Amino acid sequence: xxxxxxxxxxxxxxxxxxxxxxxxxxxxxxxxxxxxxxxxxxxxxxxxxxxxxxxxxxxxxxxxxxxxxxxxxxxxxxxxxxxxxxxxxxxxxxxxxxxxxxxxxxxxxxxxxxxxxxxxxxxxxxxxxxxxxxxxxxxxxxxxxxxxxxxxxxxxxxxxxxxxxxxxxxxxxxxxxxxxxxxxxxxxxxxxxxxxxxxxxxxxxxxxxxxxxxxxxxxxxxxxxxxxxxxxxxxxxxxxxxxxxxxxxxxxxxxxxxxxxxxxxxxxxxxxxxxxxxxxxxxxxxxxxxxxxxxxxxxxxxxxxxxxxxxxxxxxxxxxxxxxxxxxxxxxxxxxxxxxxxxxxxxxxxxxxxxx
Amino acid sequence: xxxxxxxxxxxxxxxxxxxxxxxxxxxxxxxxxxxxxxxxxxxxxxxxxxxxxxxxxxxxxxxxxxxxxxxxxxxxxxxxxxxxxxxxxxxxxxxxxxxxxxxxxxxxxxxxxxxxxxxxxxxxxxxxxxxxxxxxxxxxxxxxxxxxxxxxxxxxxxxxxxxxxxxxxxxxxxxxxxxxxxxxxxxxxxxxxxxxxxxxxxxxxxxxxxxxxxxxxxxxxxxxxxxxxxxxxxxxxxxxxxxxxxxxxxxxxxxxxxxxxxxxxxxxxxxxxxxxxxxxxxxxxxxxxxxxxxxxxxxxxxxxxxxxxxxxxxxxxxxxxxxxxxxxxxxxxxxxxxxxxxxxxxxxxxxxxxxx
Amino acid sequence: xxxxxxxxxxxxxxxxxxxxxxxxxxxxxxxxxxxxxxxxxxxxxxxxxxxxxxxxxxxxxxxxxxxxxxxxxxxxxxxxxxxxxxxxxxxxxxxxxxxxxxxxxxxxxxxxxxxxxxxxxxxxxxxxxxxxxxxxxxxxxxxxxxxxxxxxxxxxxxxxxxxxxxxxxxxxxxxxxxxxxxxxxxxxxxxxxxxxxxxxxxxxxxxxxxxxxxxxxxxxxxxxxxxxxxxxxxxxxxxxxxxxxxxxxxxxxxxxxxxxxxxxxxxxxxxxxxxxxxxxxxxxxxxxxxxxxxxxxxxxxxxxxxxxxxxxxxxxxxxxxxxxxxxxxxxxxxxxxxxxxxxxxxxxxxxxxxxx
Amino acid sequence: xxxxxxxxxxxxxxxxxxxxxxxxxxxxxxxxxxxxxxxxxxxxxxxxxxxxxxxxxxxxxxxxxxxxxxxxxxxxxxxxxxxxxxxxxxxxxxxxxxxxxxxxxxxxxxxxxxxxxxxxxxxxxxxxxxxxxxxxxxxxxxxxxxxxxxxxxxxxxxxxxxxxxxxxxxxxxxxxxxxxxxxxxxxxxxxxxxxxxxxxxxxxxxxxxxxxxxxxxxxxxxxxxxxxxxxxxxxxxxxxxxxxxxxxxxxxxxxxxxxxxxxxxxxxxxxxxxxxxxxxxxxxxxxxxxxxxxxxxxxxxxxxxxxxxxxxxxxxxxxxxxxxxxxxxxxxxxxxxxxxxxxxxxxxxxxxxxxx
Lengths: 356, 356, 356, 356
Known about the structure:
The structure is a homotetramer of 356-residue chains.
Chain A: E1 5-6, E2 11-16, E3 22-28, H1 38-46, E4 65-69, E5 71-72, E6 75-76, E7 81-86, H2 108-115, H3 131-146, E8 151-159, E9 162-163, H4 187-203, E10 209-216, H5 230-239, E11 244-249, H6 260-263, E12 267-268, E13 271-272, E14 280-281, E15 284-285, E16 290-296, E17 306-309, E18 315-318, H7 331-353
Antiparallel strand pairs in A: 1-2, 2-3, 3-7, 4-7, 5-6, 8-9, 8-10, 10-16, 11-16, 12-13, 14-15, 17-18
Helix pairs in contact in A: 1-3, 3-7, 5-7
């Protein structure tokens, strides 16, 4: 049963796998008369490009997003927008050695169990390549939300154990996110991250980290009780990104060790005095910034030898060489942004349906 | 737009609010010929009852689940099962003083912003009372999953800063969960938790904690790429519980500080050598136990004075007295179990639709 | 997989079967602050009552609709509205003789095939009793649409071969619908219908007919390309009523014998010069009245002997005696109205989500 | 809000408009390991080609369906199948004269009202061109159903008032459908249809007709009470085809003039003695052939002068010249087949989810 659809009012489905003909997204429910063109989408796609930091491969990818439908004379028409990104003639040969092996930490084993077959070329549908479609769709959501002055920014809070410091205290810390290739608003941490990445690369290993995402300008009232709470939908959207193993809203796991008197955000006539809630109360936005964090696991493809089995359940060892990223961060950051944009666009439209 | 529906194949919707006539759930898509009666449902409902530990109120509640449809001669018929729990003539008078005030940490403010109106009696739809319907539905899911030997257990890992120790190392730690009122498999920690709860009660404050949930017997192959990944759905389901502010799968936030070589679970002919994945790879169950944790915030209703505003945006102070729980734990534990049961029942049926 | 849900923005699910504890509906997505009370719902429910014409049984039924949630102080709150109608202690004994027989024209056979079991008491979920929940939900939709001056009226166009004449030509023919128990705007036809019903009753047989439904005040722009065209959704909604075997929009089957030049409705500055389109062009309302017709099959329960089999596939004969209706018309008329209200409320809210 | 999705288990969404870059469909939920290739899809696409009878234009179209994802080594993988049909560089210039005019019988007026904008090039999303995606998706559904020996055939029952005779009486009438370009199993009627089409072409007018669709091999038990009854879904699917104005199941409108004793299908140990039900009882298939008919309106584009208005509400006249079809029949027949295939594939998978 289909699991490739996200959203109810602003509805996105992605299609495509790593080494097929292409990947893409269909966006249905986008309001008409929103200015949109390929350049706008491409700008967001480009944030997903490899080679911007030492953490990602130097492989050249020219992912060009093409609008196939739903836009006419520079404006959305209200009908489905299909955006396609053709795959390059990727060398699936490099995956041939693993065609009969289950790579640890990958979906090879589980896809086989689920479908009785798998597309072993580069992870197939489980590949991070699928997220290209999400980012393209996220750009459309962004265009809708920009008209409401809603903006989402994801930055690197921690990488390989190196944590950014003092960033929430800084005024305008969001403005400095793009000043270094690690998308980290603490420039000193960024330097340390780079050092850590280089060490790990030497070891043939990989690292994870934490991405923090801020959505500003979100009006109060978005989110639907009880299963489609805004935080529930954000958690689903963010956890649906392959490498993510944890999601926090506001104080998150910190809230578990606080008391009610220190965790409740006092309400003042001018707004909330603190934001432990992360901008969401009872599943509905309260007008404050949304604050989320995701735990990103290390890239499972490493060149260190690992223990595994083949498709006949025989013990084997495997080294997944090749030009793999050291960390999903910072390329994953824009995917996080995209998912948050998708959730917000959906709930913005949903909220309109009950207003007059 | 509706947000009260959960699941696609095994589909549950809940209805009802705190001080209305009742709460309940409609379960649609349940396979026919599953043995089910009210006693079975009641047994799960009773785990939600207050008064089992010092952390919850001593208020007497006799939540009796009544099957209104969909079951005939002790078996499900395949048609919608409606389960109703009537509300007692609850004293909404005790909420009158807050009718014009926004209680910090509650949904009062956001419901008002969303709907332009709110049911101020005991939180209305945002009340934890809504979860009674979820637990009733969860019991139906449990009945379906029991036939497949799938079992979900939630226990208290941490409460008010007191953390259970060594429990994963223990054999059969799940069997000891119900041996103390805190549902904590570490009996020493349970004693310390009780002490902490009593201190906090004295202070008129409240505490949070962490619940760990284990699903055993889950076959490999459940979960649908890419947005309905099993972990994404679990995250949504768990985060949709009012007090939950964070969700982790397997290693969770720990994964962020590991390397690929230590985080990947080696694959052996007899299974995985470790379970940092939490039983899920690329969003699909791998046959190992599912392992999840949720961060539970402290109960926002405290008798300590807090700063707030009234509906006219004037500054006020508030003391939310009454017989409130000190912590959502351990009553919330069975709600976590219910949500995991719902996700698993849904994906079990979804998986059947593509098999033959 | 669940089939008991209708609508996407204004979403209705019904639950309950003929001889269980009750039937009802959950309405989710209804905008807040719509005036609503039980009296309003009951007024629509009463149009479904038996005993108003000779075509229905004289059985007394006091279907009382009770609002269980979602309404507070006479207004909708925006959260799920559950409406329950308890079943009387219906005598399922009268169905005992048929417990092992498949009644021709009924769902006994197909439910058994689908579920491997059936609730033989009065048709279970396939009973027309399920429509009580639809009418209750339809009343809520009506309340929403009334604020936009949208009104739906269903009347009897044909019954047992007797056809109403000249009614579209009449000014205000909709006002005369309730002047006779057959809900037929042609009083002469109503008299002939009554005569026909009495003859058929004598014969122990039953009859069908045609109901025409007009929705006035519908703004242009409702309906979503391409599968959720307004006419597609109306067709689904109307065909989902048990006895309906055909649906027409506007000219309907007449359109098949027309030419383009006679079927196209000329467009004038003041509106369309004719309405062969039935108020819908390319699946979207054009501002004109919506015009639909449904073919209603004769009630399958007749006291004439029929050929059938038992659950062991042995040949049998059956006489389904008892107090059955002679025709689903006119009691079905309000169910048609309800379904059209549901479709229109849904698309009204859907349209709002893409407007600003 | 999105209306481009059809089905719940076997889920299809179409994208694309008449004169954009292409049209296509995403099929999600298709079981894995179904043999599928482009040739198989193309064979069904070719039945939609123009130029096969005098009723359609002689325009050359080479609609080539390309599988972009979801198929690997000649088999479905279980992940989304995207099929794309590129648009030729169609001359939208021929639509320029109508850019500011509402063509009678078309969606120009309603799209403008709905979206505040329209893609005037050849009807945009309302164009019959969108159905290319449906047929491609229908071919995938057909591949799934073929493994169960389920087959759908649509033929022309009536065209421009000429009705096929005696066809149901014929043994194997379905085999003769493709023996003439009108897809009419009565060869004499086909000749008369051709004559009628030529007359109408002379007059610059257009005609409608009736298509009958038979699904054979359908097992008992498909369809879900109560809103997703098999007939309700078929009605929705068929009515969602642009030119369709009426849908009948089994006896259809004939049922309205029958009595219960003549309309009920007697049940015999070897099956039903007649098939007025059209293979569906209480919304669930009974194992007999499904029988449906749709009323197809005449093509609205005619070269006879018509009365209309421009976008400034000023009176105008219009002649929609060019190479338009005289009738949507017989090209629409395969679209009807596709929609029935989609409904059946969906319900086949849905039924599996509740079986074991």
